[in-house]
Amino acid sequence: MIVKKEMIAMLLAGGQGSRLGILTSNMAKPAVSFGGKYRIIDFPLSNCINSGVDTVGVLTQYMPLRLNTHVGIGIPWDLDKNVGGVTVLSPYEKISHTDWYTGTANAIYQNLTYMESYNPDYVLILSGDHIYKMDYESMLDFHKENNAEVTIAVMPVPKEEASRFGIMITDENRKVVDFEEKPAHPRSNLASMGIYIFNWKTLREALVTNKEQPNLDFGKHIIPYCRDKGAPLYAYEFNGYWKDVGTLTSYWEANMELIDIVPEFNLYEEYWKIYTKSTSNVPQYFGTEGTAERTIIGEGTEIYGRVYNSVIGCDVTIGEGAEVRDSILMNGTRVGAGSRLYKVIAAENVTIGTGTVLGEGRDIPNETRSDIYRDGLVTLGEETEIPAGVRIGKNVMISGVTTADDYPNGMLESGRTLVKEGDVE
Amino acid sequence: MRAVGIILAGGNSKRMKELSRKRAVCAMPVAGSYRSIDFALSNMEHSRIQKVAVLTQYNSRSLNEHLASSKWWDFGRKQGGLFLFTPSFADASSQWYRGTADAIAQNISFLKTSHEPYVVITSGDCVYKMDYNDVLEYHMEKRADITVVVKEMPENFNVERYGTVQMDADGRIQEFVEKPVVAQFNTISCGIYVIRRRLLIEFLEKSMEENRYDLVQDILIRYRGLKRIYGYKLHNYWSNIATVEDYYRTNMDFLNPEIRDYFFKQYPDVHSKVADLPPAKYNVGVHIRNSLLSSGCIVNGTVENSVLFQQVYVGNNCVIRNSLILNDVYIGDNTIIENCIVESGDTIQANSCYKGENGIRIVVEKGERYTI
Questions:
Q1: CA A281, CA B138: separation in Å to the nearest integer?
Q2: A374 near A394, Cβ under 8 Å?
Q3: CB contact at 8 A, A262 and A31
């Protein structure tokens, strides 16, 4: 059989995303729900098929089960192809020196055979951490026009924020003349988005040459190697919506941006659809006292209470008289009657008892991870249960099946962390 | 598997009025995000019937589009699959389907090349959940030649567009009166039949020789004395949608919590083509009471006791009451819609008012739509 793909994509989906806290306790970051019915990985996967890239290797390592079941054989994204399509690539045992994926480029290196089997001219490197719509085909056109060996997607960021990113310094033709990682005094405002197109030969050579480098990384090793070798590097400027959802706060903000009347990131355009694995087709139901404002809601959800400024997933139930504000409730969550929720992020299948109050109280920093559980958010891990009638403060994280005994005087003060061990370790 | 399936989906109904202009009855949108035929197809799927023929004739474009891929019902298999039979014209003797029996007879090779011993025949315009294996078991237990699924309707139910049956204590059908002017019995045929494949082939070949084309008149009624025809009583929800009133009522039934629970929460699921629509969106000034809304809707106004299908846009200050708004309808600001069925793809201008005064009003408005 003759196999030829002009460009294949390699999607790095193995990272934990530890700054999302409890949300990634049992799934990799790309599998985390987003925007009611989607998962983060749906955005790069949909971009691939919309850009005509029909061969995608998804590299997994950390907690891959949810990702594997979601991606499957790629049916929702039309990536179930006779030749190509989606392939989940996990670390594997070898005759000698078996390794985990030790770095972004190391993961790609360990899958040279996969890429080789498609005989590609170009390889697109993607990460599964961002919310955006991008046409990789026009990036490829740019790459070809410039006879580049490596093209790095960049986006302009405000000067004052530039020191948080890898910054590309380019000439007037967008040729990269230099770059610096998180510079104190940035010389440009073009931030790397972690999206690369490589000529296949350039990539293979760079990976093989640097294979002994510990924690082989694109930003730290491969791109500098290519520059030092004198390969033409170009920066492809992207000006659309692009949101990093690396922290709980940015994750919450990105969700909230979807509920604007005409959101900057618009899911309602016919062009450039975002696909996901649908678990349900059921319409949503509003009871006689139910209402929703500035809210998006997924399939099968039943609203008997009031919802404002929120992102609600599929098969959620919001009980009578309950009030949900500024919150993200993922698939299968149940909110008991009469409960009040403010700035809650509830992972999948959370059960909240009747008459509870979440997210009210003083703004005290979280006792265990004040860097993660902050900005007044109440974060509830997957399958968490909250008993009826309790009051819970701000900057709180709760995980596991909790009972009334865990709440002295029916209270959990702001800033507390409450983790109950489940059946599994 | 023990049976192949046949779904009769060719029918048109004048009683659907304007709604039938666009599509066959089986392609009518139901309960927000389904099509009528999804119920029969999902029943086939869950009864593990892997080989299913859909017979279409009238205005089948919409239906064909819906069935373009069979993967939603898991029929895209090496064994079996979904077969779409539309009349085809080979020579001067070719004919449209002249009746239900003729439709199957014209595709008799489907039956002849199958090896499953039984055939389950159902119409595609009914909303119900059923495991056909239960009927098969009954059929075998009764040593029946044909089993007809029947339902006892309330005394006041108007049976005049249904086949009515009278059964003896054992369940054997004694009388079968099609579309009675004066109702004698209130047990009706649901249009679901189980029959041995070889017997059906025999019936069909004989009927064709005699130029008889109707499954009910020319097989069921004609042979009811000669053959063992049994009735299997269905106790769960079943509704035929083939008139405007029944279509409206069936959709409104889904606002009833028990019926919603039965179809949406209890095993098995009803499957439909996945539309890949974004979540429904509710902006400021929204009031919704006792209503079903589907994916891709954007709502700015008031919705009460209504079903909004997929991708409906409701403008500011609109009031939608007791209405069905079918797929992809745009409703401009300050519009009032009461007791209506709004046809799919409609664009309703701002500041309009549509009210069904005596019964349900069907709104077909092809206003100009400006898309952003």
A1: 32
A2: no
A3: no
